[in-house]
Amino acid sequence: MYKNIIVPIALDHGHDPAEAIAIAKTLRAEGGKITLLSVIESVPSYIATYIPEGQMEKNRHEILESLEADAAGDEYIDTRVIMGHPGAAIVDHANSNGVDLIVIASHKPGLQDFFLGSTAARVVRYSKCAVHVLR
What we know:
By secondary structure, the protein is an alpha/beta fold. The protein has six helices and five strands.
């Protein structure tokens, strides 16, 4: 059983996080916590000038509301939205917060994933803790 679990959720991929959350609940030790984590990629400065003022904060707030809805009021589930490249940000967050398990959904890899690598593949490759990958 695990004391500190994160479940990365990519809202733009259309995956239902219910299965990943259910697995995290099953693997959570008594008194452990689960964090639903979403990563917002940084916007290049040449694009940022075209984004209306306050839009990024609005997006962050909407993502946080969605994560809180997924948490369904469970007292041991926390929500967090961070900035960065998803693969690196998830691993960095896990390493700096004492995470002992990452439960992450994966998709069937396409040709581009073999050259670039999917987020799940990057997390598996660089994580220092256990990773449970859902297919």
